[in-house]
């Protein structure tokens, strides 16, 4: 494991890594798109389950079970083949900082879901890639361009339609999801910087390990003492499984299809969120909120068009 300082310049790679990066990948677009759609479904299942469980349990307790189960699964599956390689990084401090962002995202999204519907929370969270575009110029030196500005302003307008005063959304919940957006933007920027030197599976392991530590330490203080019944226990365990499967399928999708093809599919998560929100909680967004979600989706497509002119940003 490297203990190098906070250096954002790409590290040197060995010959095998260089060959792997220069070897043209074999793409299967349909398979990649299918894996991506399934990943988004699992992510939405995780959010819906979190909202359901938050009725009886505190969010940090739910998050602790999710990360601990996820981390144990990764260790059982990957440690026999990966061993110490699962901890080897080129820029360890930045990897840890990136990993620390995800527990904040989980906490704030969980608190928001406690107070707001799944579809509206998901839609507002899509502000993150738009914020990344605005921050990328001063931090990474990237040009925003006219499409970037239009996409960001359009997405912001769509969110304003969703959170308008007459929407009756919980104001504290809105603040929580906006905090999650800021943490998510930092997470995505660090992902963009680190992907050139770090393996995706290693970064994923660090995020689950960090989440397990952060929420696991707090577990005794946030467990109300309520003993889960069989259904609640299965739902709690499912969080680690759906999260792990979601991230595995998400990463696998990028091995079979280009980011420019997969990026627009991300907004299908709004459809999953609306569908599961209706099936589980009986919630149907009002007309203006649906229009706002469509506007956010359109802005995401503009971001995709822009990304074809610059290095794509992938979620890890």
Descriptive overview:
With 316 residues, this protein is mainly alpha-helical. 74% of the residues lie in helices and 0% in strands. The protein is built from 13 helices and no strands. The longest helix has 27 residues, at 230-256. The protein is globular. It starts with 14 loop residues before the first helix and ends in a 9-residue tail after the last helix. The model is unreliable at 1-24 and 310-316 (pLDDT under 50).
Structure at a glance:
Helices cover 74% and strands 0% of the residues. By secondary structure, it is mainly alpha-helical. α2 packs across α4.
Write the SSE topology.
Blueprint: H1 15-22, H2 29-53, H3 59-82, H4 92-115, H5 118-125, H6 127-140, H7 145-162, H8 171-194, H9 200-222, H10 230-256, H11 259-262, H12 268-281, H13 287-307
Helix pairs in contact: 2-4, 2-10, 2-12, 3-9, 3-10, 4-8, 4-9, 5-12, 6-7, 6-8, 6-13, 7-13
What overall geometry do the principal axes of the alpha carbons give?
globular
**Ends: how far apart?**
20 Å
Q: How would a crystallographer describe the biggest sheet? A: none
> What is the SS-derived class?
mainly alpha
* Uncertain residue ranges: 1-24, 310-316
User: Share of helix among residues?
Assistant: over 70%
Question: Key features?
Answer:
globular; mainly alpha; 316 residues
């Amino acid at each position: 494991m490297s203990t190098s300082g906070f250096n954002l310049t790409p590290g040197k790679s060995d010959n095998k890594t260089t060959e792997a990066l220069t070897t043209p990948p074999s793409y299967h677009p349909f398979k990649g798109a299918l894996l991506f759609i399934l990943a988004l479904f699992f992510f939405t299942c995780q959010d819906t389950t979190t909202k359901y469980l938050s009725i009886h349990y505190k969010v940090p307790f739910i998050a602790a079970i999710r990360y601990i189960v996820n981390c144990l699964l990764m260790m059982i599956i990957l440690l026999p083949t990966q061993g110490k390689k699962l901890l080897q990084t080129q820029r360890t401090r930045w990897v840890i900082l990136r990993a620390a962002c995800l527990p904040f995202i989980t906490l704030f999204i969980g608190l928001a879901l406690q107070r707001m519907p799944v579809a509206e929370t998901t839609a507002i969270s899509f502000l993150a890639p738009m914020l990344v575009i605005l921050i990328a110029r001063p931090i990474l030196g990237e040009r925003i361009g006219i499409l970037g500005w239009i996409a960001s302003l359009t997405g912001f307008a769509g969110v304003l339609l969703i959170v308008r005063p007459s929407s009756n959304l919980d104001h504290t919940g809105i603040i929580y999801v906006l905090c999650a957006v800021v943490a998510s933007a930092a997470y995505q920027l660090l992902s963009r910087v680190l992907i050139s030197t770090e393996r995706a599976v290693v970064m994923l392991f660090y995020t689950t390990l960090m989440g397990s530590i952060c929420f696991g330490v707090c577990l005794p203080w946030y467990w109300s003492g309520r003993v889960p019944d069989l259904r609640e226990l299965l739902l709690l365990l499912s969080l680690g499984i759906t999260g792990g499967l979601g991230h595995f399928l998400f990463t696998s999708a990028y091995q079979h299809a280009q980011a420019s093809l997969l990026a627009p599919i991300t907004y299908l998560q709004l459809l999953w969120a609306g569908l599961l929100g209706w099936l589980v909680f009986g919630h149907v967004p009002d007309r203006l909120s649906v229009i706002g979600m469509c506007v956010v989706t359109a802005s995401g497509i503009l971001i995709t068009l822009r990304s074809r002119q610059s290095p794509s940003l992938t979620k890890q």
